[in-house]
Amino acid sequence: PDAVVDPWLLALWDKILALYPLAPGLEIISPDVRLPPKYTLHYLDEDSPHPDGGLLQPTAARALPSELQPFAARMVSNQRVTAESHFQDVRLIEFDVTGSGITFSAGDVVMIQPQNSPEDVQQFCQLLRLDPDRRFVLKPTEPGTSLPALLPQPCTIRHLVTHYLDISCVPRRSFFELLSYFSTNELEREKLQEFSSAQGQEELYSYCNRPRRTTLEALWDFPHTTCAVPPEYLLDLIPRIRPRAFSIASSLLAHPDRIQILMAVVRYKTRLSKPRRGLCSTWLASLSPEQGDIRVPLWVKKGGMKFPADPDTPVIMIGPGTGVAPFRAAIQERVAQGRRGNCLFFGCRQTSK
């Protein structure tokens, strides 16, 4: 689409300018000009007082957990349900949501806010020559721009990179375009400009999308440019980590104050030597309640599946290859209500695994 949209956009701006000419004294900003960042970043002195701010504050009483105020749920158990020899690692994970006010029924979805691994955070900070323990406050460049709601103020670089910047996502074309402005190395700058041009989109697709190369890996490939990125541009360069949705696999009637999920750990090979890993599933799979008090930020949303309200309706549920989680919740719920006639067909490649 880029090959088509670029010339179309140029023609669109020409037409708009003809219809609505610029006021006298105003010039069009040249594409060679780097626009200011959305926020400016002000480092705090080392000796300024430390607020005990953090993402995982238990939510205020009466406020139902939401994206802006997730509930810090304690992980109760994390067990593998497929055989060790099975190609796919599937976990049954249980969270304690006592005191959260969360309610749900079969078919609903739990949203989980993941975080980057400490190794990736450390690599990123080394590449960009950032001190993870430095504290800063953000100020909007333009009056009226709101600050990112999920970042505490003040914030450490480590918190920003761990909880906010999606350094494991596949970067977009705009990432390479903005990066090219910081490049002090001619070879790197030429490559970055090619990746952000209409002609270079096939090349970018082969470099980025086909092998699912991450933002962190792309930054490794442009070392001269990466160490020249001003920290205030990080929020323009890298999108925020999006929450992940999981079908709830349990019923409150069968397990009061608990949420269970069935999660396949995402891991696959591309032509890159390092296997690709899902951000959220890898993080959750690595957590173990035996290590102490493990907290995961979550909240619940209504799902798209509806099960019959009439207790006497028998139900046949079929989930071959789509995942069994919502049906598991529905069967627990129906059995707890004394409903009969529950049939579930589900797929697994080998009975024994």
Automatic annotation (TrEMBL):
InterPro entries in UniProt: CysJ-like_FAD-binding, FAD-bd_FR_type, Flavoprot_Pyr_Nucl_cyt_Rdtase, FNR_nucleotide-bd, NADPH_Cyt_P450_Rdtase_alpha, OxRdtase_FAD/NAD-bd, Riboflavin_synthase-like_b-brl
Entries under SUPFAM superfamilies matching the protein: Ferredoxin reductase-like, C-terminal NADP-linked domain, Riboflavin synthase domain-like
PANTHER family: NADPH-DEPENDENT DIFLAVIN OXIDOREDUCTASE 1 (PTHR19384:SF10), NITRIC OXIDE SYNTHASE-RELATED (PTHR19384)
Organism per entry: Podiceps cristatus
One biological process term in Gene Ontology: iron-sulfur cluster assembly
Names of the cofactor(s): FMN; FAD
Alphabetic keyword roster: Cytoplasm, FAD, Flavoprotein, FMN, NADP, Oxidoreductase, Signal
Catalytic activity: 2 oxidized [2Fe-2S]-[protein] + NADPH = 2 reduced [2Fe-2S]-[protein] + NADP(+) + H(+)
One matching Pfam family: NAD_binding_1
Protein name according to UniProt: NADPH-dependent diflavin oxidoreductase 1
Residue ranges annotated for the FAD-binding FR-type domain, each copy included: 68-308
One MF term in the entry's GO annotations: FMN binding
Gene Ontology terms: cellular component: cytosol
Top-level lineage group: Eukaryota
Record's signal peptide: 1-18
Localization (cell): Cytoplasm
